[in-house]
Amino acid sequence: MVNFAGWSMPVQYALSHLESHLHTRQHCSLFDVSHMLQTKVFGRDRVKFMESLVVGDIAELKPDQGTLSLFTNEEGGILDDLIVTSTSEQHLYVVSNAGCREKDWALMQGRAEELRAAGGDVHLEVSENVLLALQGPSAVQVLQTGVSDDLAKLPFMSSAAMGVFGVPGCRVTRCGYTGEDGVEISVPVGRAVELVELLLRDPQVQLAGLAARDSLRLEAGLCLYGNDIDETTTPVEAALVWTLGKRRRVAMDFPGARVIVPQIKGKVKRKRVGLISTGPPIRPHMPILSPEGRPIGRWGAQKWPLGGCLGLATPSLACLHWPPFPLLCHNPGGRTLTLARLAWPSPCVTKSNLQSSQAGPHVKEEGTAACVGSAHLGPSSGGGWLAHTAVLTLTHHLSLLCPGEVTSGCPSPCLKKNVAMGYVEGEQSRVGTVLAVEVRKKSCPALVTRMPFVPTRYHTLK
To answer: pTM for this structure?
Structure first.
């Protein structure tokens, strides 16, 4: 058991991670995903409300049809990914991520209050139902024995309210997070254990945990919020342009449209890609390199803004000849980077004596100007001069390389190779581009590959 977004979650059950993964691909597995936030949106302005927050075309959804969409901010960043279903019961059914539960609820509540203050009709209700995901090629066959509805007529991303194995008040949605055919079942909490036990009576059904869920979704090329997408990535950078409704693109009436829409036809600085490699496993945060083993990425200071000041205490100085000392900056990840070394021929640092770092290729040869408050110099007891403190304040940013980075990665049980996702420069994102990943300080070849890595088997009506 591990903590996941405040929930105690099983990594695996009786089957090993590998066995559980393959069982899902060959038969079907049952996942408890009750940690997800389930919200119902009521009122005549429910579509207007939802479209004020997401990039999708909610108005075009047919009764009991759903879509994957994105909450975005005004800068174009992704706040969360979610599924919105327009039910035939005159409400929207929204499922969003557990890790964003508080943020998403605050966002929706705040907007609902704004609409109501302006005379709108919308109100929200959190569903306390358990959410079960039955996934795999035999999932629908198993479920069909316990429902009266013909599941062959329920295509991918559609939903219906029905009784399941005698448990009333369930909502069955043809979707999932594995790339397989399957369903998610929202079931009243008081009957959830009963339904789980009934499903497990079928020998094709096995319980599965977080480990299999993660490797399955990665083989399917599906994003994990917080790893592959977050507030610093736009839908275009994340290769999720298909979530943008065509009408919404033209109207440019969703949060961040002024940033996102121009990116569709323009060039983005980075893009999410799929990678396949052999050798040691690829894991999140590993650098993506050129085939020669050099860091790739974009030059700029957006990733690690420099600023603040640095206090220096120095020994006695008979003359102002210091050896170069490192200028350090702490980035948000907590690591200390040696960005530049300053020669100190005078109490004031200028562009001419800001030199390149020797720490590696992540700093450009040309530095930027910095300004230093005058060092406080005073006579020492030995007759020399003592610089008690020198306070440095950067007035510009150093030019840093923001390297490509793996965001998700693991060995693929189905392909017997390593699969990963990560961000690279737009020019490096073409399928077939040969790159490398730094694994344990060694450069391992990797190939940019089309996703999904394993073909999906979603059910569509012919």
So the answer is: 0.80
